[in-house]
């Protein structure tokens, strides 16, 4: 009987197992809802364990050279998830005359550098993992996560296992999914409700506007023909230096205080009526969302906590998993559209990584 455990040892084992169960359920719960079916935090731990390190090391250099890339990548993941789910379809080029998310109205200002970076990461991963293993949708989610962190924000674990969609979204789908910046809170909430997001998500995710830029066309209706009375007078004058009249092609920072840092100053802007879009400033005007804006303005930790929860939630909207969709071998084209790529690494993809310059 030397090989079977004594009754007391068995009891100790049972206690240990029970403790492990409790621990794992605690860490899985951690105040967050269960993951979408098919997603997990360790999805690539066997198939490509170095995937996350590769994404991070690429972006560390790239964001150091151009912090605008962090903003651009964060916005790409948002557009991807809001429009027909986080399926990488935002990355597709216009094919067969169908407008892709990449070339359609709210999206024309998505930066080319971000699409290039995603394809460059894709090529590095393909080489390291021995083929197309990591989906473009997962790359977009990881790139957004690392961008936030590299710009000074929180770092968080991203559930993985998304598959890539086969077709770009139609123009109607895009317009029905992305609220315009002229929207007020009730309209914004109606857009978010369709995809299971609530008012806390709206306020926290809008905090992404702590980074990046906007073009005059996105806020000029607040300056002309007359100034929006909810806008701080000095701020309106400041914006008119960049956008002196209607239809000027120019751009300005989303967050006037710390434009390149992921922090809670966006909410301080709103308190000072220096939010850029109607959709930003109305978060402070609307009685329902105002208390959350005020809380985030005085407590950056509270903002970061909710932002992480809301990003993880957003990152699971209508995901494809299991055998659905595909793992694209070029993030800008569905595999079917590739004529003679076969199983070999396409040269265009290899070159994307080798010639990546900002
Ligand atoms: C709630 C509704 C939202 C509206 C109406 C909205 C609207 C916009 C608009 C109009 C721009 C500027 C486009 C331009 O003129 O170039 C912009 C930029 C940006 N948005 Fe949003 N957005 C929203 C939510 C979000 C969310 C949820 C995220 C990410 C989690 C996000 C991240 C960004 C970033 C990072 C930029 C700067 C991009 C760059 O510098 O390239 N936005 N947004
Ligand atoms: C663009 O904005 C800058 C300030 O941000 C300003 O100096 C420049 O004159 C603007 N360009 C035009 C065409 O108005
Ligand atoms: C905000 C913006 O630049 N909108 C443009 C988006 O693209 C369409 C064409 O697809 C233009 O007409 C819009 O002006």
Automatic annotation (TrEMBL):
Principal location listed in the UniProt entry: secreted
Catalytic residues (UniProt): 79 (proton acceptor)
Residue positions binding Ca(2+) 2: 210, 255, 258, 263
Binding of substrate, residues: 179
Cofactor: binding comment: Binds 1 heme b (iron(II)-protoporphyrin IX) group per subunit. Binds 2 calcium ions per subunit.
Binding site residues for Ca(2+) 1: 80, 83, 85, 87, 89, 101
Known catalytic reactions: 2 a phenolic donor + H2O2 = 2 a phenolic radical donor + 2 H2O
Disulfide bonds listed in the record: 48-129, 81-86, 136-331, 216-243
Signal peptide positions (record): 1-28
Residues annotated as site: Transition state stabilizer: 75
GO CC, any one term: extracellular region
Coiled coil: none
InterPro entries linked to this entry: Haem_peroxidase (IPR002016), Haem_peroxidase_sf (IPR010255), Peroxidase_pln (IPR000823), Peroxidases_AS (IPR019794), Peroxidases_heam-ligand_BS (IPR019793), Secretory_peroxidase (IPR033905)
Enzyme class: oxidoreductase
One GO term of the biological process aspect: hydrogen peroxide catabolic process
UniProt keywords, alphabetically: Calcium, Disulfide bond, Glycoprotein, Heme, Hydrogen peroxide, Iron, Metal-binding, Oxidoreductase, Peroxidase, Pyrrolidone carboxylic acid, Secreted, Signal
Cofactors demanded by this protein: heme b; Ca(2+)
Domain of life: Eukaryota
MF terms (GO), sorted A to Z: heme binding; lactoperoxidase activity; metal ion binding; peroxidase activity
Location in the cell: Secreted
Sequence similarity: Belongs to the peroxidase family. Ascorbate peroxidase subfamily. Belongs to the peroxidase family. Classical plant (class III) peroxidase subfamily.
Role of this protein: Removal of H(2)O(2), oxidation of toxic reductants, biosynthesis and degradation of lignin, suberization, auxin catabolism, response to environmental stresses such as wounding, pathogen attack and oxidative stress.
Name this polypeptide is given: Peroxidase
Organism of provenance: Triticum aestivum (Wheat)
Gene that specifies this protein: LOC123080888
């Amino acid at each position: 009987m030397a090989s079977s455990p004594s009754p007391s040892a068995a009891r100790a084992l049972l206690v240990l197992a029970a403790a492990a169960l409790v621990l794992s359920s605690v860490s899985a719960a951690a105040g967050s809802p269960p993951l979408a079916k098919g997603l997990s935090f360790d999805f690539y731990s066997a198939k490509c364990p170095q995937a996350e390190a590769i994404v991070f090391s690429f972006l560390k250099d790239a964001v150091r050279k151009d912090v605008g890339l962090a903003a651009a990548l964060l916005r790409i993941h948002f557009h991807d998830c809001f429009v027909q789910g986080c399926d990488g379809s935002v990355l597709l080029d216009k094919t067969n005359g169908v407008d892709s998310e990449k070339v359609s109205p709210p999206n024309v200002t998505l930066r080319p550098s971000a699409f290039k970076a995603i394809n460059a990461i894709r090529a590095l991963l393909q080489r390291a993992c021995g083929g197309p293993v990591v989906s473009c949708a997962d790359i977009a989610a990881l790139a957004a996560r690392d961008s936030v962190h590299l710009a000074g924000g929180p770092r968080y674990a991203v559930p993985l296992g998304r598959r890539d969609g086969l077709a770009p979204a139609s123009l109607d789908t895009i317009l029905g999914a992305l609220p315009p910046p002229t929207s007020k809170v009730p309209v914004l909430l109606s857009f978010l409700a369709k995809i299971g997001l609530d008012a806390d998500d709206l306020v926290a995710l809008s905090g992404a506007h702590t980074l990046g830029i906007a073009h005059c066309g996105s806020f000029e209706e607040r300056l002309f023909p007359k100034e929006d009375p909810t806008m701080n007078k000095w701020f309106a004058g400041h914006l008119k230096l960049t956008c002196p009249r209607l239809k000027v092609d120019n751009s300005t920072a989303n967050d006037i205080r710390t434009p390149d840092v992921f922090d809670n100053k966006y909410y301080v802007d709103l308190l000072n009526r220096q939010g850029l879009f109607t959709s930003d400033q109305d978060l402070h005007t609307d009685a329902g969302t105002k208390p959350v804006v005020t809380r985030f303005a005085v407590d950056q930790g509270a903002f970061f906590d909710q932002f992480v929860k809301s990003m993880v939630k957003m990152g699971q909207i209508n995901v494809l998993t299991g055998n659905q969709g595909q793992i694209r071998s070029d993030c800008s084209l569905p595999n079917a559209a590739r004529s003679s790529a076969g199983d070999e690494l396409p040269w265009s993809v290899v070159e994307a990584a080798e010639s990546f310059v900002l």
